[in-house]
Amino acid sequence: MFEQVKAIPGDALLALMVAFKNDPNPNKIDLGVGVYKDDTGNTPILKVVKQAESYLLAHELSKGYIGATGSPELAPLLQKLMLGENHPLIGSGRIATAQTPGGTGALRVAGDLINAVKPEAKIWVSDPTWSNHFHVFAGSGVEVRTYPYYDAQRNALAIDQMLACITQMTAGDVILLHASCHNPTGIDPSFSQWQQISKAVAERGVVPLIDCAYQGFGEGLEEDVQGLRLLVEQCPEALITTSCSKNFGLYNERVGALSVITETSEANQKTMSQVANCIRANYSNPPAHGAAIVCTILSDNTLRQQWEAELAEMRDRIRLMRTTLVKHLKEINCSRDFSFIAEQKGMFSYSGLSKEEVLFLREQHGIYAVDTGRINVAGINANNIERLGFAINQAIQL
Ligand code: PMP
């Protein structure tokens, strides 16, 4: 069976991680992999997570299966986090949330659900988007198309082209929108642009699939879901995929969720039976521990406040690195204007650096960014920021 198997090229980002690991340069800088790092270059476990885990260790009574749709406690907690405490959808029967293994698991179940209930629907993703969106939806057997998103000339959102594309989509197609901290560009719509987008999506009868992987990493817990809330208000149906990997630092615990919003509660019950069926065929039921951590934190006032403070610390550090890098590049009279980096949101930034410039950084300075010019701003710290500025300034003079 396996003797004739052809190897397929590995993921470019994973290859970059391996190259970084094998680089003997003591001053190497990792701006590739998409995890948060603190000022010492570590991906920390939040203190509040440790506290919740000690509580769970003492109180957990069973390791029994938790059912296909996971923790029933997690569903209302995540709904309130995303939609707001007293949102009319909560408890209306029109929204249901299934816990999944990470945001990726949620996206896969969403893809499988679409394929099960409307196989002719296409999923439209932004150009560019997180590359795994293509793999995941291909795995579900759903056709993927792209809509314009990034205007390379202005380092800004290509809003006019995006809106024009939405008006051409087939009603009943699905449009994937990043709730905040767009991966890979770092460019989010402004509030007025979200108003235009949600109006266009609702008018066209396209179903929004909102990928909420970075709530709290951009501007704040509330600010980062303003587009999501507009979409849910204006569209009768929506899908939301949530990841708790970044904002709780629970990358390897695989905590996420798929929320399904339908026009009626009857449709919701039927649709959730399809969701449960997709889950059973995939992994039967999700892991319990990470979701229990999130529930413990979100359902306790003290722990929740502590979590919000630690989340703000991560967010503020990323923002500080953005502004400090821009300031430093100005101070050393860099001839290219990088001020847009300070305007972008979340961990990622389309830096505008060309592939040649990225390769120069890697080969000459041991600085690892993705070939597209995407950098993980969380990889910058007080120790390496001047070296990075110096190297960027050299790279652009090629
Ligand atoms: N969506 C986007 C836009 C992401 O960037 C990521 C993580 N890189 C995910 C979803 C998936 O996150 P998770 O690790 O929870 O599967």
From TrEMBL:
Its cofactor is pyridoxal 5'-phosphate. Residues 27-388 form the Aminotransferase class I/classII large domain. Pfam families: Aminotran_1_2. InterPro entries: Aminotransferase_I/II_large, Asp_trans, NHTrfase_class1_PyrdxlP-BS, PyrdxlP-dep_Trfase, PyrdxlP-dep_Trfase_major, PyrdxlP-dep_Trfase_small. It is an enzyme of class 2 (transferase). One of its GO terms (cellular component) is cytosol. One of its GO terms (biological process) is L-phenylalanine biosynthetic process from chorismate via phenylpyruvate. GO terms for molecular function: identical protein binding; L-aspartate:2-oxoglutarate aminotransferase activity; L-tyrosine-2-oxoglutarate transaminase activity; pyridoxal phosphate binding. Its EC number is 2.6.1.-. Keywords: Aminotransferase, Pyridoxal phosphate, Transferase. It comes from the Bacteria. Belongs to the class-I pyridoxal-phosphate-dependent aminotransferase family. Homodimer. This is Aminotransferase.
